[in-house]
Amino acid sequence: MELTVAQIAEGVRRANHAMVDLEQALNAADAKLGDGDTGSMLVRVIGGMAAAAPETATSVSEAFGKLARAGMSATGSSLGTLFAGAMLLLAKQTKDRPVDWADLSALVGAARDGMMARGGAKLGDKTVLDMMDALAAALEGKTDAAQAGKAGVDAAERTLEAYRDRPCKMGRAKFFSEKSVGLDDPGMLAFAGLVRALATAK
Q1: Which residue, among 91, 99, 96, has the nearest Cα to 67 in the 3D structure?
Q2: What average pLDDT score do residues 52-76 get?
Q3: What percent helix, strand, coil does the chain show, rounded to 5?
Q4: What is the pTM of this model?
Q5: CB-based contacts of 62, cutoff 8 Å, min separation 6
């Protein structure tokens, strides 16, 4: 089943709506390990993406490009920049071709690899990359939005649980690695919340 511009725009709308409830929870989680601004940063980034009107794009690639440019202009944070960079990579990966839901696993994997190369983190460091790796695996063989949504939510919840009692090894949190044991990484927590939002109609 083909992924459409309208579905991407709806996903951005859901994510933007979800940040109303997620912002303070993410800031609180980040305050335990970092600057306490992950939620506020994502409000700016996703709000900027929504304001970029992705629904006016004429292709999936153009929609991802709009989101990348909006994200870049809305943040100076490392996590926000990585997210925007992932959108730019998706724009390049989908240029001049139709995109099916079955392609999402490979696309998420490519975004993961691009973020890994740019940010320097590795799988197992307890970062959003571990979420993306789990999501790429979970999406393999999924051919429509319903299948992808359920698989994504299940993978996000399993990954949060699996990494909660591990130390953070990247970012500011790595300086408090012992303190980070038993806490969710804010980026992973944000990713899980957004996956749930994308999978749930508002």
Answers
A1: 91
A2: 94
A3: 75, 0, 25
A4: 0.91
A5: 5, 91
